[in-house]
Design goal:
By secondary structure, the protein is of the alpha+beta class. The protein contains 6 helices and 5 strands. It is globular and about 55 Å long.
Length: 193
């Protein structure tokens, strides 16, 4: 039987945009009426003590640089400004902001810009990276940025800070992407061959 001779099956009907938005609004209203449960302190990134070698002064400097960079974000399409700052092994701090492009795939995230600025200055060993948005809650780096950070090491500390700089949390890059392909994966595969 030729593929042309088979009867065409109808495509599944998708919810309309209006229906999707109504469902999302209903979920939001429901979440506002339920009492949030306490987060396990071991899982709460804001309840963890600072990692070894990272001081409160380091975090404050990262926050200040990220906030300054956030003001320079070029985001005419999403209007979602992001600033980032990287603490290099030598103690220098490098900043970056998101730079959007009409061809969305060419958009640069703030974290990748900050890491590129670090490399441009001759540093290739980040100890910590902090990202910040204009929101009051914490927002974390996207998967592409986490993969980019993994290139530089498995235990780099990833901070997130709110815009008011009164909440900050952290996880290592590997904690955020436990199964991601990385430079270490390639090195392991090459050693086995």
């Amino acid at each position: 039987m030729c593929i042309r001779d088979r009867p065409m099956e109808p495509l599944p009907v998708m919810k309309s945009q209006r229906s999707f938005l109504e469902d999302r609004e209903a979920k939001r209203r429901k979440s506002e009426t339920t009492t949030p449960t306490a987060m396990d302190p071991a899982m709460d990134p804001t309840a963890r003590p600072l990692p070894d070698g990272i001081t409160a002064a380091h975090v404050a400097e990262l926050q200040a640089v990220a906030k300054t960079c956030l003001q320079n974000a070029y985001c005419p399409y999403s209007n979602f400004s992001v600033g980032a700052a990287v603490l290099a092994e030598n103690g220098q701090v490098f900043g970056g902001c998101n730079v959007e492009n009409a061809c969305y795939g060419l958009t640069l995230c703030a974290e990748r810009v900050a890491l590129s600025n670090m490399c441009s200055a001759g540093q290739t060993k980040p100890r910590a990276l902090l990202c910040m948005t204009k929101l009051t809650e914490l927002k974390w780096a996207c998967g592409a940025c986490l993969s980019f950070v993994l290139e530089f090491g498995e235990e780099i500390v990833m901070f997130s800070s709110n815009y008011n700089m009164d909440r900050v949390g952290w996880r290592t890059v590997r904690e955020q992407m436990p199964y991601a392909f990385s430079k270490a994966t390639l090195e392991s595969a090459t050693a086995q061959q």
